[in-house]
């Protein structure tokens, strides 16, 4: 396992072209509001334009939210941390995720750029539509809810002090991924998946957590 390289403060210019550089940056509230809005619109479509009953819609909504937590884990583990064994692959990996590990407090890069997230949303919606037809509206509403909630959690973990309640586990879990070893603790919003797939980082001592949390 590799220890994550970190410059805990600052930012980095990825492109000399102004437009391309701006496309890599966004205020975290923009996609949060965008996908919560999409969540509401999809839920309204499911209520008024499908024949599903209340309990079915509720089950589809929560199934979609749960499905997002697994999707988040798989994308983070196998796409963002893919095995980059050539210089070209390492450059691609750095652009899509490595820069976040080097500058984890860069507030403009704590969420996926809207262009990329919208394209991914269209992709997932299309797949779900082929599988579920009209049931997709309630399911995708939950999926969008899960995504926006994940964005808020990820932003809070990097920019806010850890709380003194049970939510602290989210800060601790992600801090170990950034500040001890980056090949583990991939889930941000639902750490259960790391324990289920046995990718949770094993603690050597209490100092592992203490040192990582001090860097948040």
Q: Helix- and strand-based class?
A: mainly alpha
Uncertain spans: none
H/E element string?
Answer: HHHHHHHHH
* Helix coverage percent: 55-70%
How many strands, which pairing sense, and closed or not: the largest β-sheet?
none
Tally of strands: 0
Gyration radius over CA: 18 Å
Q: What percentage of the residues does DSSP assign to strands (E)?
A: under 5%
Q: Please give the alpha-carbon distance between the first and last residues.
A: 21 Å
Write down the overall geometry: globular
Mean pLDDT: 92
Number of helices: 9
Task: Tell me what the structure shows.
The chain has 216 residues and is mainly α. The protein has a domain at 18-162. 64% of the residues lie in helices and 0% in strands. It has nine helices and no strands. The protein has helices at 18-23, 29-49, 54-80, 87-102, 114-132, 136-159, 168-179, 192-196, 206-214. Helix 3 packs across helix 6 and helix 5 packs antiparallel against helix 6 (136-159). The longest helix has 27 residues, at 54-80. The radius of gyration is 18 Å and the shape is globular. The chain starts with 17 loop residues before the first helix and ends with a helix. The mean pLDDT is 92.
């Amino acid at each position: 396992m590799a220890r994550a390289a970190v410059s805990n403060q600052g930012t980095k210019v990825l492109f000399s072209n102004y437009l391309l550089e701006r496309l890599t940056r966004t205020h975290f509230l923009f996609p949060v509001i965008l996908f919560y809005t999409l969540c509401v619109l999809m839920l309204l479509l499911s209520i008024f334009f499908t024949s599903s009953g209340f309990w079915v819609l509720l089950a589809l909504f929560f199934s979609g939210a749960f499905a997002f937590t697994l999707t988040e884990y798989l994308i983070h583990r196998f796409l963002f941390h893919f095995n980059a064994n050539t210089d070209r692959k390492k450059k691609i990996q750095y652009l899509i995720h490595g820069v976040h590990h080097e500058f984890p407090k860069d507030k403009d890069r704590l969420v996926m750029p809207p262009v990329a997230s919208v394209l991914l949303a269209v992709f997932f919606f299309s797949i779900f539509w082929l599988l579920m037809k009209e049931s997709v509206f309630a399911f995708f509403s939950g999926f969008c809810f899960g995504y926006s909630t994940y964005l808020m959690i990820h932003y809070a973990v990097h920019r806010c002090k850890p709380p003194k309640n049970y939510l602290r586990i989210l800060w601790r879990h992600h801090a170990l991924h950034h500040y001890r070893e980056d090949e583990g603790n991939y889930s941000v919003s639902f750490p259960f998946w790391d324990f289920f797939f046995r990718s949770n980082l094993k603690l050597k001592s209490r100092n592992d957590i203490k040192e990582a949390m001090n860097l948040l």
